[in-house]
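Tutorial, part two.
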Amino acid sequence: MARVLLFNKPYGVLSQFTDGDGRATLADYIDVPGVYAAGRLDRDSEGLLVLTDDGRLQARIASPKTKTPKTYLAQVEGVPGPEALDALRRGVTLKDGPTRPARARVTPAPEWLWPRDPPVRYRKSVPESWVQLTITEGRNRQVRRMTAAVGHPTLRLIRVAVGDWCLDGLLPGEWRRG
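Running the prediction step on this input gives:
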């Protein structure tokens, strides 16, 4: 039976176990041999990372062909209106082509939100809001590029679910068996 670990990747940690430049990696948090990240989460993104020792499961989660949903909370500049949300729902055209349609809605800031170190830059003159976005692809920095394409750059990005697995109660740096 496949081993599955659910990890809340902190900001600034690489989604790999080794790094030649001395940056924080998964090895600083997880001492379980033989598991590997199923997909990636950028160094400046936070939240759920699924790890497994099953190569087929890893490929199924990471492959865009399987359309595994990945849900994010994005703190964005401004408050997206109906036009921006509709564009995300239809799919936006990025430099590497059109995205698949996404589920998108404005949502309140999560009550369980932990502080980020370093904190997100704050500007009095620019309001911010949170968007819940579910995509079925996983292109490089896709959510950030999508929100920017509709005029609302991402300030903070937290993945809260991959398929049926959820972050539920894991603090940054914590993991549990899935």
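The domain at 69-162 is CATH 3.30.70.1560 (Alpha-Beta Plaits). In part three we will examine how such features are distributed along the chain.
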